[in-house]
Amino acid sequence: MRYNINIWFDLFVLVLLGYGLWSISNFPTAEARQFPTVFAVPALLLAALQLFLDSRKRTEDESPAAILDLPVDPSVPPRVALFLAARAFGWILGFAGLTLLFSLYISLWAFVPPYLMVEAKASWRAAWFTTVLVAVVIFGVLSYGFGINVPNGLFLRSYLG
Amino acid sequence: MDFSIMAEAFFALMEPVRLLLLFAGVLLGLFMGAMPGVGGIAALATLLPFVIMMETKSAIALMIGLMISGNTGDTLPAVLFGIPGSGASQATILDGHPLARKGEAARALGAAYLASMIGGIIGAIVLTVTLHFIKPFILSFGTPELFMLGLLGISMTGTLARGAPAKGLIAGCFGLLLATMGYDPLTANLRWTFGTTYLYDGLPLIVVALGIFALPELVDLAVRGRPIAENTKIEITGSLVQGMRDTLRCWFLVLRTSVVGIIVGILPGLGGSVTDWFAYSHALQTEKGAKDTFGKGDIRGVIGVDAATNSKEGGALIPTLALGIPGSTSMAFLLYLFTMHGIPAGPRMLINHPDIILTIAWSVALANIMATGVMLLATTQTAKIALIPFHWLVPLISVFIIFGVYQASLQAGDIIALMTIGVFGWLMKRFGWPRPPLILGFVLSPILEKYLQITLVRYGMGFVTRPLVLIIAIFILFSVYVGVKHSSRETHHEGGT
């Protein structure tokens, strides 16, 4: 008998919905409470039911592939997947943070070539060539051609006023 | 039927920029379809911030091109490598891949492409005709019925999540709740803003869509890293023309499975992943000698499936346009596009915007023709897409996601919300929680809240006794019953094996 890891996420959802329902009760008017209550109550009950069902399974079976959703690649073991996912999130978070602070004008060059060279083992020539192509599409076609705004980063905004 | 509006919509679509955008959408859709694991929904979510800034008909052309052509492109890896390009091409493998192993890959692909095109065009015709004739019926619906139909859409999408009806329903409710952040539309009271001004107007759908769909797929691409068809030599032998002849020979099968696809498409929540199986089993039961030859490389197995997977889009557009109830995530994005452009989908759209409806129908038909044309001309080149290592796509898609999410409100909150929702979306995927009901709930929430408020003010709780409301309520209960029964049967089956 193996312990079912799914219950941790079930529990998280249950707590989230419980908090949601509690905070609904603090909304100032009945009109504001009405619609969220209609859905929060059944959602909370279903979350409790799901937790109960998963806790009875007692096995770490395959997560049921949601029929409407893309399946998870089963060839990567869960522990490795978790590590690789955390690493990927780290890269993306770093890129997002750089964009937030210094804008895409700078973060693009600081993110794409290193990622390609480190993770995809690309040559520096291929990595920089790809980055230039992306820059042309973003700044040339989308920003200049279609007039889509490239926001300044927080740091640049405060520095430039 | 007003043929002048039909002609007007056609010529509007024929404008070079729109035609080019439709073609660009088709190419992108084929790319996504031919590369298993990326997913057309993630691509659609990534494009959404840019699409909503475009003029309405151009945006429709791009989105429809992307939505439609994925169903044609996903046949390629299914036939060549035995790997479905998307959930909609799983049944294609059963006969398509054995044909490829017999050296008749091109025949299977030729048959599939033509069947896809014919199925897609039939879907577009049925869409146009149906919307014209059901108009009087749809216009008789009041807000109580529309509210209940919205619930039906979410309950069907939620409960039909395989093996997890409760998870699907919770996800749907969660989407409905998430969208109530910000000002309450009736009293302007703030809900769940956590003291930040960023949430005063609620979470933008772009942020939620990118966080729930695009970011988790991106992370999973990074996890997988290598290409789907590593160290595989791409060899397409046989005759495309022979396959196309086979399709024309089986015209009645194409017609029947197209109808199957349309019917499945109309039902919210079923969509792509089951259409192929419905069509395959229909062909298996009705075609002569199929029980002996299907699964061993029978071309009719490929033809039946591909006609249905492309015709279902026409069917799925019917409830989206006529009732404002999207049956799938891509349809929810289309509905959001209409909202952003001030076009109310649903009964009012049938009266006020027939040109938009006909532009969509024409786009569906043309996208199918374009997709088939491209695949017939460049099958070998397109197959090489499956050899691209996923690591190369990660930084490129990241740039578009971050650039796109910033367009939502141009605030730092967009990025913080994206990362938070992205982690939640990835966990949902990992733990087998279906994400489409969440998006559907999120898109429908403001509309349903409005319908509920109007209903309660106008009819009080007495609305539950209206005949149509009762009928829809029975359908909702039935969908929940079917979902639970199906789930318990699967659990029992797993336990028994």
Question: How are the SSEs placed, and which strands pair?
Answer:
The complex is a heterodimer of chains A (161) and B (497).
Chain A: H1 6-24, H2 30-57, H3 78-102, H4 104-118, H5 124-145, H6 154-160
Helix pairs in contact in A: 1-2, 3-4, 4-5
Chain B: H1 3-13, H2 16-34, H3 40-51, H4 56-73, H5 75-80, H6 90-101, H7 105-133, H8 135-139, H9 143-159, H10 165-178, E1 182-183, E2 190-191, H11 205-224, H12 240-249, H13 251-266, H14 272-286, H15 290-293, H16 299-323, H17 329-340, H18 347-352, H19 354-377, H20 379-383, H21 390-406, H22 412-430, H23 436-459, H24 467-496
Antiparallel strand pairs in B: 1-2
Helix pairs in contact in B: 1-19, 2-4, 2-19, 3-4, 3-11, 3-17, 3-21, 4-16, 4-17, 4-19, 6-7, 6-16, 7-12, 7-13, 7-16, 7-19, 9-10, 9-23, 9-24, 10-23, 11-21, 11-22, 13-14, 13-16, 14-16, 16-17, 16-19, 17-23
Number of domains of chain A: 2
Structural domain count of chain B: 1
- For the residues shown, what is the average pLDDT of chain B? 86
Ends of chain B: how far apart?
56 Å
Order of neighbouring strands in the sheet with most strands of chain B: 1-2
Major sheet attributes of chain B: 2 strands, antiparallel
User: Can you write the helix and strand succession of chain B as a string?
Assistant: HHHHHHHHHHEEHHHHHHHHHHHHHH
Strand content of chain B: under 5%
Beta strands of chain B, count: 2
Alpha-carbon Rg of chain B, integer: 22 Å
Helix content of chain B: over 70%
Instruction: Name the poorly predicted regions of chain A.
Output: 62-68
Cα Rg of chain A: 23 Å
